Amino acid sequence: MDSLDNIIPFTAHAFLRPESKQCLFNSISEWSLLQGKQCLFRVPPGFEIVRTEENSSDSISVSCILRTNNLEDITKWDPLAFSELALHLESDNSEWYSLFQCLLHDWNKKHYNANIVLLGRNDVKESTVSNDERLILFGLKSKLAIMEIELKCAIAVKQHKYVDVIDFKAVSMMPLLAGQNGGNWKHLSECFHTEVIDSQLGILGHDYPSKLFLQSEQKCDALLAKQCLEKKLNDILDGSLHATAIPNVSPLKIAYLKTVFPSETIMKLMQKYPSYINYTTGSVQLQSNSAALLDIVRKRFVRNILAVISEVRFWFTESNDATELINRTSTFKRIASKNNVIFSTDKFKNFFNFVGCHASIQQTYLDILAEDFQCVQNVRFTLELDTIYKDFISGKKNGKLMKIMDRKKCAISLENDSSGHMLVILQGEDWQQIQDSFSLLLQELPCEKSFFIPEAYHRPVIGTGGSVIQTIMRKYNVFIQFSNSFQLPQGDWTFTRYDNVIIRCPSKNTINIEAAKEQLLSLSEQYSQVQKTVYVKMSPSQYLYLIHMNSDLSFISEIEKAHSCYISFPQSLPVEGYHINVKGNDTGPERAANDIISRFGREMEIHIKNPASENEFSKGLLLPLSYSNVQFTQNRNFIRLTFSPLMKPSQLEEIIFLIDSFLKLSNNKIISKREVAHYTSVTPLYRVGKQLNTTIENSPQTSILKSFSQVRI
């Protein structure tokens, strides 16, 4: 592949110079001129600027190309980039400016090309941050994530917050520690009032520190958060890490993924199914701490990423006319840059490749068609799919493909490549008609959407003998697949609901997917409403107890599976008065509710004389209570403790004495305390997740509920 001449597109951004009156701090001394406007930008040597376009967000897009016969040269792309943060200045501005100067001095000693612009609150231009001052951080693209994290750490220290650090060995551990969609970071914030200092730029395409920084108002909060994170990291490292690779990926596709394909799509995949994705020469490497998740990520990567990239190759008759070859190459270079696709050709200029997303390749083809070249011998389109879609795309007895071939006089073949995937190859000589063939082929490609429906509702939604689901599939011309998510891991500090329903149809019928999904969800909701429901009250401290006193939350899935029911277990810290609802048939909900309660800890409510701030209480008691394996929540005059049912009375007395002694230091004291009995109820007195409706306090239903509260189950 290195013998090919490659044209690779890149995009940089130039920051437009703000008005002087808007700047509270500005370290930029030299501005460049672009489109007649002063701005700041830098493109590395060897990259040619081919087009500029002003955006609405204080910047100009700068389109560049790199011409090379070595695809490894794409690593030289390191333009000047910028990131925007919100900053609230609480002290003398000059102190902040000194901090900025120190950071800039340190960064520029390392040749980061760093600058900072701080814009005041009166700036009316469009902004990605909604409040406070706007800080614009400039630096080399590769170093910007590191700079952003260091800046946030410095700001936290300046604001008298406690900052701590964890060495997580390798960047590949980051998404595994974060949990699904960053659920573990949210848990640290809710339960330990500790924030993870990370970069909004993500870990792809940037140098990223192999350290995790934490910040908190209280040192004890950060220390406990750090302890929990280190334990989770050790569990991951001591457990089994699973890795696989997608081999023999075209070097041009790898280059496209690194340079043009939106990294946000890759990040979302890693966040949804905690995993790490890395590109190497000719392959894509995947890592997860779950073999089941790793298999899902591999399939999703092929379906949602590799399958949306296509390649078109043109063969031309040999020509000895140097001027013609130069003009043809120049035209293709212009078209490739315009459509943001990678362009390559052999040294004899006999064939030309274009790699990009389907829409870009279609537009590229139309642009080339408009040039009316007369020397095209052959055209070939290539797509890559998982082999599971072979019957889907070919149709019964290859009917779908035969229909396209008969209409447009082209050849379509399905070939298994060495990576285990299927190549869909469309080829023909009539390059005027083959564009229509490609459009028809794209319409037959699979389009999918996945979502969650409780496993307990699958059978009624499917219907007896599949009657209901067959009707829906025929009505919307879609394929629907149900799966079981019970076996998927629950190792995070939140209970994860994985997608377990897939709706698939040809791309030409994409609009039908949403309609079919709505009908499935409607059927699920209708079935849910006629299910027997048992309610289980769960306090915030009880939630923390279940999270931290169990190795994971897989027991929720086990209870659901054992009793064929659905449990509305919260996915974040619940409010006071929250009730889990357990839905099922016959005695299943009661048995499931009892199984949940059997996991509960003992619970005690303490009322104190004077309101106490949460920070004050946390600062004094969080560490000793946590080391005693006592979970607590506190709100003004109310303290709730949750602890092991096996705790000895003497140990409980020591904990109460500790709390009382701490309160006396601030002229406060315990007014009353009582142990809470766990209960279930079949009476729907309240909406799930909400406080009890106090307007029906004297109703007969409330009396029933109160009688339940006197009984320990």
Automatic annotation (TrEMBL):
<dbReference type="Pfam" id="PF00013">
    <property type="entry name" value="KH_1"/>
</dbReference>
<dbReference type="InterPro" id="IPR004088">
    <property type="entry name" value="KH_dom_type_1"/>
</dbReference>
<dbReference type="GO" id="GO:0003723">
    <property type="term" value="F:RNA binding"/>
</dbReference>
<dbReference type="InterPro" id="IPR036612">
    <property type="entry name" value="KH_dom_type_1_sf"/>
</dbReference>
<protein>
    <submittedName>
        <fullName>KLLA0E00881p</fullName>
    </submittedName>
</protein>
<keyword id="KW-0694">RNA-binding</keyword>
<dbReference type="InterPro" id="IPR004087">
    <property type="entry name" value="KH_dom"/>
</dbReference>
<feature type="domain" description="K Homology">
    <location>
        <begin position="445"/>
        <end position="525"/>
    </location>
</feature>
